[in-house]
Specification:
Helix content is 79%, strand content 0%. It is built from ten helices and no strands.
């Protein structure tokens, strides 16, 4: 309740800017309850106090700008610098080690799913830069993941209204499983689409040549 009261006070004093600057600073690894703030902002939208479209744009921009800044810091400074001086920016060694381990396990996919893993999303941008992942590839994973993340948590407040806190706790606990389910459905859709296109190509190749075309060929 104390955290929620602080968030309420911030929105009462600063309005929309809380979401943009809060998420931007969170991804530079400064402490900010991004998911809780988004869900509460969605609730304020449900009550008609804030516009959902503006919240969505600001949350997406704050998240992606923060991630992009960390990407370029990682690319320019490198791991030795972040390991040595990261503690001044709350980049603790245990969290750096955890993110490095997850990066080795999931590769570029971690940039997308990292938003939903506590203690990891704040560091994926740094490691993407350190690993010299091409910016276009980084942006594809980072910006699509950001959109999914902000829509989910803003949507909780918008859709469930006064019950947002209960649903938020469930989403916060099981969001990784939800994401895995969505990813599995997308994979099935891609495989199905690929098999359909491949089958159509095979049918065209096996189709008999019309008799008139054969005579002309002779």
């Amino acid at each position: 309740m104390e955290l929620l009261e602080k968030i309420q006070h911030l929105f009462g004093s600063y309005g929309y800017s809380v979401l943009f600057f809060g998420l931007l600073l969170e991804f530079i690894a400064l402490p900010f309850p991004g998911e809780t703030t988004m869900a509460y902002a969605g609730y304020l939208s449900y009550k008609g106090q804030l516009d959902f479209g503006i919240l969505l744009i600001l949350a997406f921009l704050g998240t992606t700008i923060g991630m992009t800044i960390t990407y370029f810091i990682g690319a320019k400074a490198g791991l030795p610098f972040i390991t040595r001086y990261g503690k001044w920016f709350l980049l603790k060694q245990d969290k750096l080690d955890k993110t490095q381990k997850w990066f080795g396990k999931y590769g570029n996919g971690l940039i997308f799913i990292g938003y939903f893993i506590p203690g990891v999303r704040h560091f994926t941008g740094y490691f993407a830069g350190i690993a010299a992942i091409p910016f276009r590839k980084f942006a594809l994973f980072a910006y699509s993941g950001a959109l999914f993340w902000v829509v989910l948590f803003l949507g909780i407040g918008k859709l469930f209204g006064p019950q947002w806190n209960v649903v938020f706790q469930l989403a916060h606990q099981y969001s990784a499983y939800l994401l895995a389910g969505v990813g599995l459905l997308l994979l099935i859709a891609v495989i199905y689409r690929y098999r359909t296109v491949w089958s159509q190509r095979n049918v065209k190749k096996k189709a008999p040549v019309p008799q008139r075309q054969k005579q002309n060929a002779d």
